[in-house]
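Please decode residue identities from the backbone states below.
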């Protein structure tokens, strides 16, 4: 195995590689020669990224070298245990690292139980997913959550066990196998910032085991917590105020950024890192292909800051990413960091971490700006904010979405607002009023979530149909209103399907499900109005999707049309990101997707009135005699201008 050319490593990586190769070899003796070589080639390829991620965090420790060798042993064991079909997938993805960037990628997001009852039930629903050409399925609350309140599954009791109400590990493996056979990747949540107070680590810590107490942040009195609180915001100001909780049995305070039953993990302890890597290897070897790394912005605490987006977070994520590349390279990482643009790009890597941190990250700003433009019928803020967005590496993909299981926070920066003559706080208040339905003339039926009395901040819950005016129009039997709402929902989807990345359809939006009132009745959900947009899939209503006379049928067919157009439009590959255009038009939103095949210009009318715009921007983008990829038509440009119907979307090539 020594006849390969060594990689050019530097610093600690060069020094530590030989020992780590040795450690890996010891775990792999029983494997065929080719498998051992493959592991070593991958180890050498990604070792620099691994060490560069870990060194700033743990490099000062005397046992850093041993820690690293043990980590490589774990990776080697993960590789050793990897089932053959997944090893084949690893090879495919080594060869096609852009698999999640391709225009055929379509994501679907659902609570496993609310979508299909059980994991096996998901297999029975795969026909439905195929109708939507889904290639990426994010199932929520799969890993065993705590009993009682569990923040919608984001308080995990055991990362290695499946929620018994859904099935067991064999069922999870079966779902992965079935989906993979269809070309669909399963994504599950890996809640990295905290585990629940019922997790074995927490129980051992409570029982006095010091090893496990070091997995958490514990304080004997309020001195340190108070010092941190001085600069810490509150995630759930009304549901779970404060960031620390008193544990009477231990006589200590514990860090709980979210609910008091979600205990923040102490990532400054390398044992936590090692544990999570073992969890990742285990789940990846069951067939999980994407990890949604939950609430990652909060992983590192630094006194005097808001304890979000600290550089160590990006280092740790880079190291986790390298671990997957070494042992389970088919796996991709999606970062859930709902933060401002300048902070967000760090999750793809900036500077020395460029392109090394996560493969996919949520485009929160695109989502917020879409809702903002739809409410104000004005695209200037959207255009400005998205034009200012920092550049991202060509190897990444945005997770583009209109709705998800969470509330919407109006992440509109004050300086972006000011640049287009708006007052940030006033605009954010307008959006809350508008989507809560209290603004005069609003068609929205959302509700305020997480009202922060101190900052005035009001986030919003509500289903897509409720926020986009479909629910209200249907309740009022308002035919024209229904037409407009359908068009509004589709223009939103035309944006997320064309912007570049993994478009995520949120369960039920494809048939326009309204808010679910049942959340009031269930004691498990009553306290948290995000459950209004986490309905059960009403399969009896889903049948209407094939009837073009129904709202469900119109939406479903409209979405399928967009998805079909996306799949056959190579310009929509995520490698060339969207460049937002300033058309000097306050009602239209537009961007170009540059491509060696000829650019694509996407234009969206964000209002219920027809709009026209001079067509010069098309020739500037090199697009002559354009064809719309969605409708297949040639727009009429004879008068030198392009005309868009209410809420019309055009993808012009
Ligand atoms: C993420 C989840 C959200 C949860 C939080 C805490 O933001 O999307 O639902 O409340 O993390 O885990």
């Amino acid at each position: 195995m020594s006849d390969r050319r060594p990689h050019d490593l530097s610093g600690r990586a060069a020094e530590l590689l030989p020992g780590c190769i040795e450690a890996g070899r010891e775990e792999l003796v029983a494997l065929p020669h080719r498998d051992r070589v493959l592991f070593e080639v991958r180890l050498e390829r990604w070792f620099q990224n691994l060490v560069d991620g870990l060194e700033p965090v743990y490099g000062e420790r005397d046992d850093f070298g041993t820690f690293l060798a043990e980590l490589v042993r774990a990776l080697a064991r993960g590789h050793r245990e990897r089932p053959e079909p997944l090893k084949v997938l690893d090879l495919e993805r080594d060869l096609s690292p852009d698999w999640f960037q391709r225009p055929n990628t379509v994501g679907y997001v659902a609570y496993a139980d609310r979508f299909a009852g059980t994991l096996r039930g998901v297999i029975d629903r795969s026909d439905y997913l195929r109708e939507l050409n889904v290639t990426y399925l994010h199932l929520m609350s799969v890993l065993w959550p705590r009993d009682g309140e569990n923040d919608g599954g984001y308080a995990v009791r055991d990362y290695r066990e499946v929620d018994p109400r859904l099935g067991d590990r064999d069922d999870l493996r079966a779902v992965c196998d079935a989906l993979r056979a269809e070309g669909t990747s399963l994504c599950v949540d890996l809640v990295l910032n905290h585990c629940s107070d019922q997790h074995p680590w927490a129980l051992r810590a409570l029982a006095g085991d010091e090893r496990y107490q070091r997995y958490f942040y514990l304080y004997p009195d309020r001195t340190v917590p108070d010092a941190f609180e001085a600069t810490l915001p509150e995630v759930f100001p009304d549901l779970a105020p404060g960031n620390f909780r008193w544990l009477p049995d231990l006589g200590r305070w514990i860090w709980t950024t979210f609910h008091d039953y979600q205990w923040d993990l102490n990532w400054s302890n390398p044992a936590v890192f090692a544990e999570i890597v073992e969890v990742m290897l285990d789940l990846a070897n069951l067939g999980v292909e994407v990890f949604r790394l939950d609430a990652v912005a909060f992983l590192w605490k630094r006194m005097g800051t808001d304890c979000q987006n600290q550089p160590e977070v990006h280092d740790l994520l880079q190291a986790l990413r390298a671990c997957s590349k070494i042992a389970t390279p088919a796996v991709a990482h999606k970062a859930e960091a709902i933060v401002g643009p300048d902070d967000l790009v760090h999750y793809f890597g900036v500077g020395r971490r460029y392109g090394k941190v996560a493969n996919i990250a949520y485009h929160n700003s695109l989502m917020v700006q879409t809702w903002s433009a739809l409410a104000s019928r004005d695209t200037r803020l959207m255009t400005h904010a998205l034009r200012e967005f920092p550049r991202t590496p060509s190897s990444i993909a945005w997770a583009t979405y209109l709705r998800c299981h969470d509330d919407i926070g109006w992440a509109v920066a004050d300086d972006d607002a000011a640049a287009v003559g708006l007052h940030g706080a006033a605009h954010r208040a307008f959006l809350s009023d508008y989507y809560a339905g209290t603004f005069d003339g609003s068609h929205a039926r959302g509700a305020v979530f997480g009202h922060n009395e101190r900052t005035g901040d009001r986030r919003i819950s509500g289903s897509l149909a409720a926020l986009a005016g479909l629910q209200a129009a249907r309740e009022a039997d308002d035919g024209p209103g229904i037409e407009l709402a359908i068009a509004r929902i589709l223009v939103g989807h035309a944006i997320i399907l064309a912007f570049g990345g993994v478009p995520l359809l949120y369960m039920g939006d494809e048939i326009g499900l309204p808010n679910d009132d049942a959340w009031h009745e269930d004691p498990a959900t009553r306290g948290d109005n995000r459950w209004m947009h986490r309905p059960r899939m009403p399969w009896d209503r889903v049948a209407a999707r094939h009837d073009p006379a129904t709202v469900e049928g119109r939406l479903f067919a409209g979405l399928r049309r967009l998805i079909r157009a996306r799949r056959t439009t190579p310009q929509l590959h995520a490698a060339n990101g969207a460049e937002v255009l300033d058309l000097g038009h306050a009602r239209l939103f537009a961007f170009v997707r540059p491509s060696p095949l000829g650019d694509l210009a996407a234009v969206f009318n964000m209002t219920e009135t027809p709009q026209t715009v001079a067509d010069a921007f098309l020739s500037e983008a090199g697009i002559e005699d354009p064809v719309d990829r969605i409708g297949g038509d040639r727009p009429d440009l004879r008068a030198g201008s392009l005309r868009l119907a209410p809420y019309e979307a055009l993808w012009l090539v």
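Observation: The pocket of alpha-D-glucopyranose is lined by residues 151-152, 154, 191, 258, 294-295, 336, 405-406 (CB under 6 Å).
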